[in-house]
Design a protein that fits this description.
The chain is mostly helical. Helices cover 47% and strands 0% of the residues.
Length: 116
């Protein structure tokens, strides 16, 4: 049986991993955290270990930029200016991540690029 966690536990853990920034259940992972590349991958892996869920079906490239994409100056500038509006990426918020933890495995959010 899975241990039930409270969303505040998830928020506190993510905040502690990202320098204590103020977050809510509507905070968009990666965008509001200001992370990408290896930092984003590490955070997801840490979360999966800490909260015991599978990332088997999580496609990193759909949610954040890789290190090689970040090193592309034009693409990085585009990202800095327009965020995900101009990039082919999905987003998800902490509320969705809580559902993932409850289910025990990653699943894509039903709504793309919207506050779920």
């Amino acid at each position: 049986m899975r241990k039930e966690i409270q969303i505040n536990e998830l928020i506190a853990y993510i905040s502690s991993k990202c320098g204590g920034i103020d977050l809510s259940e509507e905070s968009i992972i990666f965008d509001d955290l200001g992370i990408n590349g290896i930092d984003a991958a590490t955070l997801m892996e840490d979360l999966a270990i800490k909260f015991d869920f599978s990332l088997e079906s999580f496609d990193y490239s759909r949610y954040f930029l890789s290190e090689s994409e970040l090193s592309n100056i034009f693409r990085s500038l585009l990202y800095a200016l327009f965020k995900r509006d101009k990039l082919p990426s999905k987003t998800f918020n902490i509320k969705h991540l809580k559902r993932v933890v409850d289910r025990g495995k990653w699943f894509d959010p039903e709504v793309i690029n919207d506050r779920l």
